[in-house]
Structures are given as structure tokens and as C-alpha cells.
Amino acid sequence: NFQFAINGPGNILVANPYLVKSGSSNASTPSFWAIEGVADAKELNIITPNTSHSYTNFITRKEFTEVIVNLYDVVREIPDDLPKIAFSDTTSKEVEIAAALGLVNGVGNNQFAPNALITREQIVTIFNRMLTNLDITYPVSNDYVRFVDESLISDYAKTSVQMLYKLGILQGVSEAQIAPKNNATKEQSLILSVRLYDLLSQ
Q1: How far apart are CA 96 and CA 120, in angstroms?
Q2: Per-residue pLDDT tens for 127-167?
């Protein structure tokens, strides 16, 4: 099991109420700390059929891509004239749209790996690409925030981790630990997406 921090306790550990253990589950309702955030995702039409159940299960690349496409469409209507970008291992329309928008990339050999789990650093990288696509910038400090697990952050994700952390979208699993390689659950991903929507609607 992996652990993931979010702005609300789930499966509370006394030492740190923001650490959540996740695994396979068929839970029809979110964790108690995620109920409000998931409700917000439903109200905003960010939630998808694949993320409207088993909320504590880890989310796949395809499932998160479906969420981000919904989020993009809520914030700014998806253009009709997007180029067609196809992958050999998925026929997902949302994956094609997200790739055409520059939000997601393949993993090589014309593959997307739709069923692979997504990590925290990958999520914020996609968020940062979305901000770039929307041509939206926010004033943030130039000071570099250092984490105890800094060496675990992939080079491609460092700028995104810094930006989304400073914007309050990504939070650490402790005061100085960011856990970039940890996987996210469906409910955690929905709440992160709602946070980004809240930022974009200010």
C-alpha cells in the first residue's frame, strides 16, 4: 500500500492525520474526509463514470485523463478542430483529446499505458500543462522549496511540483516531504482537480 497526503484526514494515523493508505476497494461512498470534495466534483461535472465508484482505489492514467478533459471542458470549451492523436493501446476519446491539447504524452512506441497508475508528480505536471495551454499564469515566489525527498522528483516534474505546491494545489505528506512517486486514489485526484478549478475560477 502507498500513502498519499491531502487536505483532510482519511484512515487517520495518529502521527500524521494527512497520511492515507489506499488499496483495492469497491467502496460506493468516498472516505469521510473526501465526501465534500467528491460532491463538488459531481456538481462541477468533473467526475466521470470511472471515478464515481471505488473511490479509494488508485486511479489509472486513462481514468485521470478522463477527469482532466472534463475539467478542461468546464473551464474552457474543448475546440472542435483538434488534430487526431491516436495510440496503439487505447481508443479512448478523452486520451486523444488530452494528447491533442498537449496535456498528456505517451510512454513511447506509440503507447499510452492507459491502465498504469498515475503518480503525484505526473498529476501536477498535467495540471501545469493545462495552465500553459490556457495561457494562465500566477505570481508565485521565486524561492525554491526544498523537500527531504527532493531526489525522488523527476527532472521533468520539478517545475510543476514547485508551481503547484506554491499555488496550494499539491500538498506535502509532511512538512518537508512531497512523495512525488506515490500513486493517487480516485477521490484524491478528484479533490486535487476541484482545487485547480477553484484556483482557475478566482
Answers
A1: 22
A2: 999 999 999 999 999 999 999 999 999 999 999 999 999 99
Q: Do 109 and 173 contact (CB within 8 A), yes or no?
A: no
Cα distances from 26 to residues 31, 156, 186, in angstroms, run: 12, 34, 12
Asked if 4 contacts 22 with a C-beta cutoff of 8 angstroms, the reply is: yes
Q: Does residue 19 have a pLDDT over 70? A: no
Helices (H) and strands (E) in the chain, counts: 6, 2
Give the whole-angstrom CA distance, residue 95 versus residue 110. Answer: 13
At 157, the amino acid letter reads A
Give the rounded distance of the alpha carbon of 147 from its chain centre: 20
Euclidean distance between CA atoms 93 and 154, whole angstroms: 28
Give the model confidence (pLDDT) of 66-121 as tens digits.
999 999 999 999 999 999 999 999 999 999 999 999 999 999 999 999 999 999 99
Question: What are the grid coordinates assigned to 116, written together?
Answer: 498504469
Q: Name the residue among 192, 87, 136 with its Cα closest to residue 104.
A: 87
Q: Which amino acid is at 151?
A: S
Q: How far apart are CA 54 and CA 74, in angstroms?
A: 24
Q: Is 39 exposed, middle or buried (0-12, 13-18, 19+ CB in 10 A)?
A: middle
pTM of the predicted protein model: 0.87
For position 175, what pLDDT does the model report?
A: 79
CB distance 165 to 192 below 8 Å: no
